Amino acid sequence: MNKQYIAKGFGILLGLLFLCAPVLAQEYPIDLIRDNIYRLTAGNPVLAQEYRIDLIRDNIYRLTAGNYCSVFMVTEAGIVVTDPINKAAASWLKRKLAQRFGKPIRYVIYSHNHPDHTYGGEVLDGVGINFISHQLAREDLIHTKAQTRIPNIVFKDDMTLFIGDSRVHLRYHGTNNGRGSISMLFEPASVLYVVDWIVLGRMPYKDLQGYDIQGMIDSTRAVLNMDFEVFVGGHAKAGQKKDVRRYLKYLETLYDAVRDGILARQDLPTLQKEIRLDTYRDLAMYEEWLPLNIKGVYRTLVDESYLLMRPD
Ligand SMILES: [Zn+2]
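# zinc ion complex -> structure
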């Protein structure tokens, strides 16, 4: 390729960036656009950070760090942050919050106990900052000697924080994944944040390690009775209530298919071969993870419900 073509190509690329800029600016913050231009021009994969901040709605933003997401809410009275994810992500977020909003962090809320979401809390810590989780999540972090900031406020069933003109409703729906995994409803933006036990646009994770499938179904049903307009998960896509409804339908269909297969005396390899849920084949990782999802539900039904020990 000669220089003329390279120059022309670069010109077209720049033109496209300018054309896209007004559209991108609505959905993505200027930082992201700048970071992407930096990526394109630097051409160095080591410098390409997988961090970004998206405005979700009103005063609610989403932090993406690789495959992980958390949300934060900006108010006049300060910022409410959720999962710090890890030390590097929390450091990046802390810097961006100071640069863009100039408001102090007031609360950090952990969605549940798992270290791949709750590590890095100490990076966000400071005078007057409260860390909140469900009591079971706090207990687990202490029992397992987790190296993150331990929450100083816990709750059992639900709790509401009032900050500025906004509120956050925290609710525990029972066992679903890990320990003390809660939903967070941000008002008045009407954004719901749930980690791991609701995932949109992608299959539930592999063989559902640590998941209570019946609990996931029950908790998702409970969430669907709440008023919210936008859903943000700890992984994969954001969506609307109808998407959460569709996710619930997937879980129910998967559960029913595996249960009925076991009751019809089919073994796991047969179930993995025969169960197809092709209405959901648009979900990311459908082919790869469907047999693993089946295995996860099978294991739960055998270990928890003792389905192979039924006398009938
Ligand atoms: Zn997760």
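# post-check
The chain has two domains: 13-48, 50-239.
The mean pLDDT is 89.
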